[in-house]
Design goal:
Layout lengths: L3 H8 L6 E5 L6 E6 L3 H20 L2 H17 L1 H12 L8 H17 L5 E6 L2 E9 L2 E5 L5 H14 L3 E5 L5 H12 L7 E3 L4 H10 L5 E5 L2 H11 L5 E5 L4 E5 L5 H13 L9 E7 L3 H13 L19 H16 L3 E4 L15 E4 L6 H4 L6 E7 L2 H9 L3 E2 L1 E5 L3 H8 L6 E4 L14 E2 L2 E2 L4 H7 L1 E7 L1
Parallel strand pairs: 5-6, 5-8, 6-7, 8-9, 10-11, 10-16, 11-14, 13-14, 16-17
Antiparallel strand pairs: 1-2, 3-4, 4-20, 9-19, 12-13, 15-18
Helix pairs in contact: 1-4, 1-7, 3-5, 3-7, 4-5, 4-7, 5-6, 10-11
């Protein structure tokens, strides 16, 4: 049975290059994380390639059984995994945060194991017979981000393994320990060579992974600029890609809402993981007739959500994971303040503090083309824009080049569905924002990427379609 100390010791035994890891909430030194090079990556790819035929030769039922064993291992180590995640990433243990993420890693692993994917009979009549099979692609290269490092790694790992691929995973440089610990726990029950992890810089290890001709598929969650570089680097090999890229999700509140009833759901739509979520609500458009009431009710909820060190059980909001992200949020809020927008809550960070804490911030009466609206803040600052014309606000919601998620808030479902149909996004939620389900496909539109994860669509995305006809 793992403890925090034994798990940390197991993943930091390394004789090569290392990087010091500090708690973003306290500045406390945690450990030295290993930093690998391209030679280590190439060896890991070769290991994965050698292990892949035997793994692919297993039946779906046999691979699913291994995934359930991996999920059991995650569950057994849930508390030390959550503690390490909280210390390194900053998110609190409670609320939709560290324990929630570890539980999600377990749950999504089981979902990938249990999702049926039978052979599809396409035609069976007098014209002929044809059926669709889905074969492994080989080695999947997975590149996971720092905001949900364990959960998103599982979104890449579990379906890939289920479909008979092996995996080489490069975690984000600032949350290496969390993902190393997750892989360590899983590899205690998986066959050798099936799941490999190589922490290292994106500029070297990540770049080499995307360029390798031995990689059949790249799965990446991160920024749009990096996604574009991956597209270019992988193009000579015609590598298959699933890219979940940046977003700047819009929410539209229609006139016929109960502001008090929707306030808490609005809050968590925007501030889950302290706003550090690709599909979080990042710009909120509220009809003039309910604008003041929505702002007031949302401020009441936000003011009562405790922020602080993640290991303190009462906190549900934490620091920004790194100082660079703190600086982005700070710059965008200062831009809004300089424009004359109204600060309803927050907006006054202690820039000299040790931790990367940015206070929960609501900005009202802001121009719809202010930087805080147009740029993805990826932190705890929400601009709230007043509107009166529905066609105009739909145009504002759609005008950006990104389109990951969106939401419509209304007591009239038919009206909400009609507005949702006009929004350009991979997902539009009704009276909620950002809720994910392991059986509902998820991915972006426009520059927010392509490909889908989760459910049957997610399994098919990490496999090669093969038609057998005749």
């Amino acid at each position: 049975m793992h403890t925090y100390d034994t798990l940390l010791a197991a993943i930091t035994e390394h004789e090569g290059d290392t990087r010091d890891v500090f708690d973003p909430a306290t500045g406390e030194f945690i450990a030295k994380a290993p930093v690998h090079d391209v030679a280590t990556l190439e060896a890991a790819i070769d290991t994965a390639a050698a292990a892949q035929p035997a793994w692919a030769a297993l039946s779906h039922e046999e691979r699913s059984a291994y995934l359930h064993k991996a999920a059991d291992a995650i569950k057994a180590a849930a508390e030390p995994l959550a503690e390490l995640l909280s210390r390194e990433q900053g998110k609190p243990l409670n609320g939709p945060n560290a324990r929630f993420e570890v539980g999600g890693a377990e749950g999504w692993t089981r979902a990938a194991a249990d999702t049926p994917l039978p052979v599809e009979v396409i035609i069976d009549d007098e014209s002929g017979y044809a059926e669709m099979h889905y074969r492994p692609l080989g080695v999947v290269g997975a590149i996971s981000p720092w905001n949900w490092p364990m959960m998103i790694s599982i979104w890449q790992i579990a379906p890939s393994l289920r479909m008979g691929n092996t995996v080489v995973l490069k975690p984000a440089e600032t949350t290496t320990l969390s993902v190393l610990a997750l892989v360590k726990v899983m590899n205690e029950v998986l066959p050798a060579g099936v799941l490999n992890i190589v922490p290292g810089p994106g500029s070297t290890v990540g770049d080499a992974l995307t360029r390798s001709p031995k990689i059949g598929k790249i799965m990446f969650t991160g920024s749009t600029p990096v996604g574009k570089r991956i597209i270019a680097a992988s193009a000579p090999n015609v590598t298959r890609l699933t890219l979940e890229l940046g977003g700047n999700d819009a929410g539209i509140v229609l006139p016929n809402v109960d502001p008090a009833a929707i306030a808490e759901d609005l809050f968590w739509g925007a501030f889950i993981n302290t706003g550090q979520t690709c599909a979080a609500l990042k710009r909120l458009y509220v009809h003039d007739s309910v604008y003041d009431a929505v702002v007031e009710e949302l401020a009441k909820v936000a003011a009562n959500m405790p922020m602080g060190v993640g290991l303190d059980e009462q906190n549900v909001l934490g620091p920004l994971q790194n100082r660079a992200q703190f600086d982005i949020v700070d710059r965008l809020v200062e831009s809004a303040k300089a424009s004359g927008a109204r600060v309803v809550l927050g907006g006054d960070p202690d820039r000299d503090a040790v931790g990367n804490f940015y206070p929960t911030t609501l900005i009202a009466d802001i121009d719809p083309h202010n930087d805080l609206v147009l740029e993805e803040q990826f932190g705890p600052a929400l601009p709230i824009i007043r509107y009166s014309d529905l066609d105009e606000v739909i145009g504002l919601a759609n005008e950006l080049e990104v389109g990951l998620g969106s939401s419509v808030w209304s007591s009239d479902r038919a009206e909400a569905l009609a507005v949702a149909a006009r929004l350009q996004a991979g997902t539009t939620w009704i009276n909620g924002h950002g809720g994910l389900h392991p059986m509902i496909p998820f991915g972006g539109a426009k520059h927010s990427g392509y490909g889908r994860e989760f459910g049957v669509a997610g399994l098919k995305a990490v496999a090669e379609p093969h038609v057998i006809s005749g």
